[in-house]
């Protein structure tokens, strides 16, 4: 199995409203829980009780389309509100992410790292020291995880920042984006992922669910083609429609029914009938 | 800060329906996320996307009532469906729980362990080897965490098992409860917590949210009095009513408003007005 480490702050963890997009159920996609793999369901990265849709689900969904019959695992280690200083080598977040990745790597091969962070450093001239800190982190992760060539996909901060709500505080996001772009272009096996056209929740800082689906697709484009993604992809909306209409497998249908039952949305009788129907269908 | 390790299977993780009980917001209660502490909100133990109310929130709430001005942290490591064999010394769950506890113990003192497990071992005469496995686990945890005397509270399996739904498969839960009771009585600093009177979700296996609140209170009774709890507590319903009517602090009110806003239930304008109101009130 291949695995992908998710690190950064809230927009990597995901704050898109879950009810705003079609759910992604896919038995080829797993997420790390208690050091082991579970079938993926959003929220993938439960750093907060308000965690929602991030870029990882559509990234993984796109991956499975290119890898029929194979599995991918997501290692959620993003932390809302974290600054680059909190991702120092000896900080909790970095050490914990390495620890989680090592559990995952007992049963998978680390194939990539998705990074999205910087809103918490978009003020007070922090961009001036951001590059060195980011490069130090990437070097440290690759060393500690013994994955010197693992590709790192670096997402740009939302162009909607600096305008409204909580986003207003991110007055220097353009400078951070400049640094991000520079790091991606100069550092080996690092790829830039544009946030062009993505929109925000009413808080003005968190990428909305629909945009996160598009963002994940762009992260996958960068990963799969090993290239920077500087522009909106042609097929983003078309892909989302196709993904939403994907026919579920039998296991995925059982997963959906089990979810509904576990949340009290079905009686045991209804659940049993639905399960029989799933099992009897081809 | 004191901390509490939560281990076992789904009824420790929590599957009570969140909407069935009054939420517990309390700035003295924290939960471990990414190796650090966050203010607690349910679900505390996100082993599955359907995780809900377990015993930990009311345990911690009761603790804070006895420790004004102090803080407590919850370390969620319970894993739905896990059998005692999956809690072997070299298993993922045990190693991961130790790893999480060690992160927590960098900034807290481990004060107790809450254990609830056994539904997955309530068939096939597994009870015959359960005692040795449980004792081996407890010994190993205390050694690895350098906490030889840390109290372990062991919750009884629900008396509703063996009857309906998924609970039907737990045909030997009484034998497991016998073993649990024996371990609690004979092992040092282990305390038994009865499940008398607790009721289940429609699945017949998961303790419902209201019962989990009561269960947590019993776990706290065992912990705080260092004694077995063999019977229903007199004050369970009264306590729940009192907890539900507790006046929130300013920080807790801000947390509630922030949650609503983060979930898209308030516009930025509404959120700002509500926040002003909180800040202006005493």
Automatic annotation (TrEMBL), chains A, B:
Residues 4-224 form the Sialate O-acetylesterase domain. The keyword Hydrolase applies. It comes from the Bacteria. The keyword Lipoprotein does not apply. GO terms for molecular function: hydrolase activity. Pfam families: SASA (PF03629). Keywords: Hydrolase. This is Sialate O-acetylesterase.
């Amino acid at each position: 199995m291949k695995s992908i480490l998710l690190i950064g702050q809230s927009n990597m963890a995901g704050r898109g409203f879950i009810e705003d997009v079609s759910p992604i159920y896919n038995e080829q996609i797993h997420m790390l829980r208690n050091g082991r793999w579970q079938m993926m369901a959003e929220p993938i990265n439960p750093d907060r009780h308000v965690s929602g849709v991030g870029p990882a689900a559509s990234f993984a969904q796109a991956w499975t389309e290119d890898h029929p019959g194979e599995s991918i695992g997501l290692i959620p280690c993003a932390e809302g509100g974290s600054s680059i200083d909190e991702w120092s080598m000896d900080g909790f977040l970095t050490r914990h992410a390495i620890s989680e990745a090592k559990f995952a790597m007992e049963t998978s091969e680390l194939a990539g790292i998705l990074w999205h962070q910087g809103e918490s450093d978009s003020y007070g001239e922090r961009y001036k020291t951001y590059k060195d800190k980011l490069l130090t982190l990437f070097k440290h992760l690759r060393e500690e995880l013994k994955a010197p060539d693992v590709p790192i996909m670096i997402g740009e901060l939302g162009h909607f920042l600096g305008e409204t709500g909580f986003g207003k505080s991110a007055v220097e996001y353009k400078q951070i984006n400049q640094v991000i772009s520079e790091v991606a272009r100069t550092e080996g096996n690092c790829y830039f992922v544009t946030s062009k056209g993505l929109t925000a929740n009413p808080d003005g800082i968190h990428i909305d669910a629909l945009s996160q689906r598009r963002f994940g697709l762009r992260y996958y484009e960068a990963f799969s083609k090993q290239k920077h993604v500087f522009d909106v992809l042609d097929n983003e909306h078309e892909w989302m429609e196709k993904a939403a209409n994907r026919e579920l497998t039998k296991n995925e249908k059982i997963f959906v029914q089990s979810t509904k039952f576990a949340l009290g949305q079905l009686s045991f009788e209804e659940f049993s009938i639905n399960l029989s129907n799933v099992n009897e269908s081809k």
